[in-house]
Amino acid sequence: MTEMFDIYDDAMRHIGTKSRADVHRDGDWHRTFHCWVIYRDDDGQDWVVIQKRVPDKDIYPNCLDISSAGHYEAGETVADGVREIEEELGLVVIFDDLIPVGQRVNVAHYDNILDRQVSDVFLYICNQPLRDYAYQTSEIAGLIALNAEKGLQLLTGEIDTLTVPAVGFDTPIITIARDDFIPTQDNYFAKALVLAKRCLDGEKYLFV
Asked: How far is CA 75 from CA 3, 81, 187, in A?
């Protein structure tokens, strides 16, 4: 079945619908949903769940990515984005339990794809163990738990590699590096880790 997306002009006015392939070919503005799953453990350490993309993804295969993300289908609202969390991670989430942290505008080139999107970004607090996630194996190769403090050291270049708990890999502990993450121009992953720490500290009015 062909995925259809709503598309927008440069002022984000709705101008029609197109297939996923055509949107990415033509570089049309479209909207996506991002959710970062975060938690604080019993030792007071803050964590963010990160997924590894499967090898056959059309954009950034095998890269580490947001906990859960996806495109809105044509006609869907922001609240409909929670279906992505259940589809990808097996978590049944109520939209009102998400913590909104604003929108992110991003443009990415990958081979013949021009991806221009505005993403609604949310945090979701959930301390479910990694082993209990019923993640979508057709989309996700595995999950890792990224320690927020050590992850920031990795992403800012203070350290070169980091060992992390994982599921879906050959071993329950794997080593990751900065180059394993999807490349971004706005330090998106580091920003998400900072937001996670601030949110778990009880801060309000957070913005990506």
From this structure: 12, 12, 31
What confidence score (pLDDT) does residue 58 get? 85
Q: Where are the beta strands (DSSP E) in the chain?
A: 4-8, 14-19, 29-40, 46-53, 64-65, 68-71, 99-110, 113-125, 140-147, 161-167, 173-177
Nearest 5°: the CA angle 96, 134, 184 is: 70
- Torsion 38-181-208-69 (CA) sign: negative
- Residue 50: its pLDDT value, please? 98
Averages of pLDDT over each 10 residues, the chain, 208 residues: 95 98 97 98 98 94 97 98 97 97 95 95 97 97 98 98 98 98 96 98 96
Number of helices and strands in the chain (H, E): 4, 11
Distance from C-alpha of 27 to C-alpha of 109, rounded to nearest angstrom: 9
CA-wise closest residue to 208 among 99, 109, 117, 48:
99
- Which residue reads 């996506």 in tokens? 32
Burial (CB count within 10 angstroms: exposed 0-12, middle 13-18, buried 19+), residue 114: middle
Q: What is the pLDDT of residue 18?
A: 98
